[in-house]
Amino acid sequence: MDYSKWDHIGASSDSDDDSEESGDERESSPAGGRRQPPAAVGAPLDTTAAARPSPPAAAQASASAVLSRVTRVERLAEEVLAERRQMVELDARRQHAREAMASLRRVERQGAAAAAATKHWVCLGDTFVRRPHGKTRTMVEKDQERLEGEIAALHRSVQQKTSELCEIDPSISGGSDVHRSFSSLHGLSLDQVAEVLPETAR
Q1: Cα–Cα separations (whole angstroms), residue 126 to 123, 129, 132, 161, 200
Q2: CB-based contact 87:158 (threshold 8 Å)
Q3: What does the pLDDT look like over 79-125, one tens digit per residue?
Q4: pTM of the predicted model, to two decimals?
Q5: Is-contact 167 93, C-beta < 8 A?
Q6: Between the N and C ends of the chain, which has fewer C-beta atoms within 10 Å?
Q7: What count of other Cβ atoms lies within 10 Å of the Cβ of residue 93?
């Protein structure tokens, strides 16, 4: 019997299987002819590409400078308003001291004996105390001096802080720099007036 035809059939079937396998490989292989290894299960994803780029250092510095400027302006404005309210309160107390001093002077115009014999009611905190005329006058004078010093110190502080506000925001002063002169402006004392104008001091 001739078995040569069976050998031909087996060879052809083997070649068909090989061709099918090679076709499957071509279908599953990506461009380039090489198969990529499967991704590992549970491997971390690469998120560097999705991460947002950080803003440049110049922008961060500019934002920080603006925030610092706004904070400084708000703090100075609050301090100026608070000091001005304090000046109003101290000025009211100074006016009361002036009225008390005027009352004491009216007693003194009646004569030294009448003033020495007179006692005045004085409010010390929550308590009223009756004190002699001389001690009352001394206390009122010291109170006046203290109030004058506190008001003057607050006035200088308000001038300096207002000038600093104008430096930070020139729109407050309309672009003028006249505030620089007023921030360092002080009145003359009696001794200085006497040195400049001796005839006027006399």
Answers
A1: 7, 10, 19, 36, 45
A2: yes
A3: 999 999 999 999 999 999 999 999 999 999 999 898 899 999 988 88
A4: 0.58
A5: no
A6: N
A7: 15
